[in-house]
Design a protein that fits this description.
With 280 residues, the chain is mainly α. Helix content is 76%, strand content 3%.
């Protein structure tokens, strides 16, 4: 537990320090790096399931999905192209996978290769690119960066709240066949912590966030995001169980791999993005 706490504090220092000195550029680099590492771990787990994804091709396309829209928008100002890049790259992944399996895989696992390669790109970098899409909202860049940080904080602190509440008063197992340690009490605690943190950030950092994100609105948005966070975390547990893997990696002491960092963001990023379409 101590190593997990220390790692969490160090990670937040790195994130906040990077954003303070380098702004949105640092955010895109961090998102891209984490998406690539997560996809690397995901492909490793699919190999344990007996599949043979096109590992490095998927990772290279994943890097383009998360990074290309931002840099094209910032340095080329091409919004009509940017909007279609992520979906276009997912289609490219499918086309290349279909072409490659004909000569590089045998008949026993061609379908699995296509499904694992495309599924990984769609599930991880494509979903995480919505954090970059939040940075590219048609508003002030500083406001977008704060909004992106708000999503990450609300999502990740749901994990923290659920863990601490579960340890303190957790009694009723939520999904014993998937993640035996998770409890309904922990889930409620995680949602409450997310709502409280979201409201607090909306109040104390109001100057940096959209005017529409009042503390009350922040609570109403944070609640569904927190629920999706729990679902997203459980899906990672499903994948790990299928691959017979306890931790996705040993990148961060006390936490695990990159997948253990991004798991709660994979499903929440697109949900937050579409909710924010209604914010001014």
């Amino acid at each position: 537990m101590l190593s997990r706490i220390l790692s969490t504090l160090l990670l937040w220092l790195v994130i906040l320090g990077s954003l303070y000195f380098f702004g949105a550029d640092a955010a895109v680099v961090l998102i891209t790096l984490l998406a690539a590492l997560t996809l690397h771990e995901f492909y490793g787990m699919t190999k344990k399931m007996g599949h043979r994804p096109f590992h490095w091709m998927g990772i290279m396309i994943g890097i383009l999905i998360t990074a290309a829209p931002y840099y094209l928008m910032v340095y080329r100002d091409a919004p009509e192209i940017v909007q279609n890049i992520p979906a276009g790259l997912v289609v490219l992944t499918l086309l290349l996978s279909c072409a490659r399996v004909l000569g590089e895989r045998d008949a026993t696992n061609r379908v699995e290769t296509i499904a694992a390669t495309v599924g990984g790109v769609l599930y991880i970098p494509f979903m995480l690119h919505f954090l970059v899409a939040i940075l590219l909202r048609d508003t002030d860049n500083g406001e977008n960066l704060a909004l992106c940080l708000w999503v990450v904080a609300v999502s990740k602190f749901c994990d923290v709240g659920a863990l601490l509440t579960g340890l303190a008063i957790g009694r009723h197992k939520m999904a014993p066949s998937i993640s035996p340690k998770k409890t309904w009490e922990g889930a409620v605690g995680g949602v409450l912590v997310s709502c409280g943190l979201g409201a607090a950030m909306a109040h104390f950092a109001a100057a940096y966030l959209p005017p529409d994100l009042t503390p009350l609105i922040a609570v109403l948005i944070a609640a569904p995001i927190a629920v999706i966070t729990i679902i997203s975390d459980l899906i990672e547990s499903v994948i790990k169980r299928r691959a017979d893997t306890k931790d996705t990696g040993a990148l961060i002491p006390g936490i695990g791999g990159a997948f253990d960092l991004t798991d709660s963001l994979i499903l929440t990023a697109p949900v937050a993005y579409f909710i924010f379409l209604f914010l001014e």
